[in-house]
Structures are given as C-alpha cells and as structure tokens.
Amino acid sequence: MPPAAPRGRPSSREAMLDAAVAVTLEQGASRLTLDAVAKRAGVSKGGVMYNFPTKEALLEALLERLTQHNRQAGEAIAAALPDVPGRALQAYVLNSIRDPDDDDRVSGALAAVVNGSPALLKRVAGYFAKRFDVVSQDVPFERAALAYIATEGLWLMELFGVSPFNAVQRSRIVELLTDLAAGRRDALPDRPGHG
C-alpha cells in the first residue's frame, strides 16, 4: 500500500479518484479509462495501475468513495437530529432529497457501467442492503421500506431528469417522506387527485 500523504494534501490515489470523477462528469462513464485518469491526473498510466491495476479496481475504489461520502453525509445529518427511534431513517431521507451533488451525478453516470459487471453490481446491492438494515433497525419494516423505496425512486427520477413532479408536488412528497420517516404519519393522505 502506498504511504500516506502529508496532511492537507491529497494522496496520489485520492488525486486519481478526483481525476476519475472529473472524467466521468465531463465525458461520461463510457470514457472512464485508466489512460483518461492518468492524463487528467497528470501521472503515468503505470502510476494509475500501481493503485488500480484494472478498470474494475478503479470502479470499486470510486464506488467505495461514493458510499463513504454518502455515509458521512447521513451521519452528519443524523447527529443534528434528536436521538429518537427513526433518526437514521429520517437522516437517510433528508440526505437523499437534497439537491444532487457531484457524487450523485457520478453515481448516476456509473449506473450502466456497474450494471454490466456482476461483481460491482453485487457490491452495490450489498451497500443498499446494509444501508436499509441501518435505517430500518428501530422502526417498523413497512414504514422503513416504504420510505426507502419512495426516496430512492424520487432520487433516481430527479437524477436522470425524468421526474413528472412539479415543485409543489415535490414539496408535498418531501413533506410526506419526512413525516413518514419521523413516524408522524401512519398512512397516506386520503386526498384524491394530482394537485
């Protein structure tokens, strides 16, 4: 394993992951190659291969970084919430409904690449399973599952720019999801229509 970089400066490995993010955001996941990362990071391909011997190893490290960032953001949100049952579920919902950032855009761009790799897909499935275990540990399964599925659906539709909801409808959905996560609603509203 390469030695740690001095504090304040990113390690060359982190700089290469930064380069991988930049390539993915600027050119798309299909253009994410070891050569493209080397060029963007200003290092030799051998330098990239020292840290990531294959493209799959690079993708695994990138996915790990994305999931770590997501975990840290969720933990920061949870720390600001009251310590009550459902806190982890509330933090998950609040973290997921915020405006998409670069990590979200990279996740969306990598979706097709990950889907083509059984090993990476298994890793992502494991992440979703572990995250659900955490957010559902102290709330009824049905409440956690409904909030989880709806939040993921909203996140994906917005990430891919295909959400059918206007701003008022989105606001109502977010209110419902946060109330559901906090245990403030046991059932969906009875109001018919699309408002």
Give the strand tally.
Answer: 0
| Share of residues in strands | under 5%
Largest sheet: none
Q: Using the coordinates above, name the CATH class of the largest domain.
A: Mainly Alpha
The CATH topology assignment of the largest domain is Tetracycline Repressor, domain 2
Unreliable spans are 1-9
Description:
This protein is mostly helical and 195 residues long. The protein folds into 2 domains: 9-53, Arc Repressor Mutant, subunit A; 66-182, Tetracycline Repressor, domain 2 (Orthogonal Bundle), CATH 1.10.357. The protein contains 9 helices and no strands. The protein has helices at residues 12-27, 34-41, 45-51, 55-79, 87-97, 102-115, 118-135, 141-159, 167-182. This is Transcriptional regulator, TetR family. Pfam families: TetR_C_28, TetR_N. Keywords: DNA-binding. InterPro entries: Homeodomain-like_sf, HTH-type_TetR-like_transc_reg, HTH_TetR, Tet_transcr_reg_TetR-rel_C_sf, TetR_CgmR_C. Residues 33-52 bind DNA.
